[in-house]
Design goal:
It is globular, with a radius of gyration of 22 Å. The protein folds into two domains: about 10-205, Orthogonal Bundle (Cytochrome Bc1 Complex, Chain D, domain 2), CATH 1.10.760.10; about 205-350, Cytochrome c-like domain (Cytochrome Bc1 Complex, Chain D, domain 2). The longest helix has 13 residues, at about 25-35. It contains eleven helices and seven strands. The strands form three sheets. Strands 2-1-3 form a three-stranded antiparallel beta sheet, with no helix packed on it. A two-stranded antiparallel ribbon has the order 4-7. It has about 350 residues and is mostly helical. Helix 2 (about 70-80) crosses helix 6 (about 190-200) and helix 8 packs across helix 11. The chain has helices at about 25-35, 70-80, 145-150, 160-170, 175-185, 190-200, 210-215, 225-235, 270-275, 305-315, 335-345; strands at about 10-15, 20, 45-50, 205, 255, 280-285, 350.
């Protein structure tokens, strides 16, 4: 698919975590030597983050202590897809964030080491560059923290502690070299998080038909039924009360009533904030790629978008802590059809370029 508008480029020129402004011969030789010594470095440390049309470059979140570099992204790519980052070599980050499925996994809840099932679905991992708080409950304040959290979860990657994980990784000479090339020091769990987060920030979704219609003025980008759905999305269906902005998420936490109907309430955000009003509240997910990321909700209970629209149309599930924004919508069958047509125009591009490396460090 060709882009309707040129990519916006966010350029950072870095080497070893420091800004590279020097033009001395020594500085130039340092850049060249890093590029030649490691086959994992695609180019010298000059990374250009390409922001697809429809996304906002000004909203990018990159911590000052973790600037993006090409070699760091490539290290993070290897770590993200490498199943050796589990005790029995069976689980990688990519197990729950499958590249060909738009970095979702198509399962109701996440599956980890030894086939164990988690209690929540795996959130999609694209457009994370626009968020600070991560996970359904926002317990990770940064993408760096999110990137290492699953490694010591007994149900996910399954390491008993980070020392065990790093000890295993240090037995792989290729990784030892890559970490030294990228960070100028031996590997640490903090730098593992920085590398994986850097790769995750390259996984994007934008330039959807909806973007080209709404922002690009391309009248034929979406069918008439989806155009009517867009009007409903903003008005009668009340979707923008939570799914707002260019990434279709307010980045806030809401109680829809999920789990209050079958006595399987997940306390969600409350376990992090201890704020009573956030009992059973979960972070608003992006709606980009929504037709590719079934099943839906934090417990994966809905198999189809039709079920999701019907759920909202009824006003969710009443409970003492339900968000007051959730109200019955009284959509007609035709309006539901139109709304679904619009939601299906939110599939875009960008994530398709975030592919598995052809080989891994040895």
């Amino acid at each position: 698919m060709k882009s309707a508008a040129p990519h916006t480029e966010l350029r950072q020129v870095m080497i070893g975590g420091s800004t590279l402004f020097r033009k001395s011969l020594l500085g130039a030789l340092a850049v060249c030597s890093v590029a030649m010594l490691s086959p994992w470095i695609a180019t010298a440390a000059d990374y250009k983050l390409k922001i697809p049309f429809g996304l906002e470059e000004s909203a990018v979140v990159i911590p000052p202590d973790n600037p993006m570099t090409t070699e760091k992204v490539e290290l993070g790519r290897a770590l993200f897809f490498d199943k050796r980052l589990s005790p029995d070599n069976t689980i990688a980050c990519a197990n729950c964030h499958i590249a060909k499925l738009a970095f979702a996994d198509g399962m109701p809840v996440a599956t980890g080491i030894r086939g164990q099932k988690g209690g929540r679905s795996a959130p999609v991992s694209f457009n994370r560059v626009f968020s600070s708080a991560q996970f359904w409950d926002g317990r990770a304040d940064t993408l760096e923290a999110q990137s290492i959290g699953p490694f010591t979860n007994p149900i996910e990657h399954g390491f008993t502690n980070y020392d065990n994980m790093i000890g295993k990784m240090k037995k792989i000479p290729g990784y030892k070299k890559m970490f030294m090339d990228v960070f100028g020091e031996d590997m640490t769990i903090g730098n593992v998080g920085k590398a994986i987060a850097s790769f995750q920030r390259t996984v994007l979704s934008g330039n959807s038909p909806a973007d080209r219609f709404d922002q690009g003025g391309e009248a034929g980008a979406i069918p008439e039924t989806a155009q009517r759905g867009l009007t409903l999305f903003r008005d009668k269906a009340r979707c923008t009360k939570c799914h707002s902005g260019f990434n279709f998420s307010d980045e806030k936490f809401h109680n829809l009533g999920i789990g209050w109907d079958d006595n399987k309430v997940d306390l969600g955000r409350y376990m992090v904030s201890k704020i009573t009003e956030e009992l059973g509240a979960f972070k608003t997910p992006t709606l980009r790629e929504i037709s590719r990321s079934a099943p839906y909700m934090h417990d994966g209970r809905f198999k189809t978008l039709e079920e999701v629209v019907n759920f909202y149309n009824k006003g969710g599930i009443k409970n003492p802590h339900q968000d007051p924004l959730i109200l019955p919508l009284e959509l007609t069958d035709q309006e539901k059809t139109d709304l679904l047509a619009f939601l299906r125009t939110l599939n875009g591009e960008g994530w398709q370029q975030a592919t598995e490396p052809k080989s891994f460090p040895q």
